[in-house]
Amino acid sequence: MSNETQRPPFTDPRRTDPRRNILWNNVGITEDVRVDVAERALNSGEYLMLCSDGLWEYIEDDEMQRIVVAAGTPQAACDRLVALANARGGEDNISVIIIQVND
């Protein structure tokens, strides 16, 4: 098996914590919905990526960044990331959305 398709040995405790898959917030359980909001200005050429733990558990952050930047388009990056997570064993839902900010 090539190094690329082997799951990396994660050292970040957020990736190995046994509580990492616990939902802290959800919609539909109660009538009251708590919304977490964060704002960040994005510059032209920057990316915004949302992904599920099915992707996050198989690819390190720096590797995700390299793939997104090198892919050429957000769709190509999504395709590459999902394929890599699947090649590394992808046991969970693997979802990703990438948006590139343009002028």
- Specify Rg, calculated over alpha carbons: 16 Å
Give the ordered list of helices and strands.
Answer: HEHHHE
Contiguous low-pLDDT stretches (5 residues minimum) are none
Helix content: 25-40%
Query: What best-fitting shape do the alpha-carbon axes yield?
Result: globular
Number of strands: 2
Work out the strand percent: 5-15%
The order of strands across the largest sheet is: 1-2
How many H/I helical runs? 4
- Briefly note the structural class of the backbone: alpha+beta
N→C terminal distance: 42 Å
- Major sheet size, sense and barrel closure: 2 strands, antiparallel
Arithmetic mean pLDDT: 85
Briefly, what is this?
The protein has 103 residues and is an alpha+beta fold.
Features of this protein?
single chain, 103 residues, alpha+beta, two-stranded antiparallel sheet, 4 helices, globular
Give an account of the 3D structure.
This protein has about 100 residues and is α+β, with helices and mostly antiparallel strands. About 30% of the residues lie in helices and about 10% in strands. The chain has helices at about 15, 55, 60-70, 75-85, and strands at about 45-50, 95-100. A two-stranded antiparallel sheet has the order 1-2.
How do the helices and strands line up, and which of them pair or pack?
Layout (H helix, E strand, L loop, with lengths): L12 H4 L30 E5 L1 H4 L4 H11 L2 H14 L8 E5 L3
Antiparallel strand pairs: 1-2
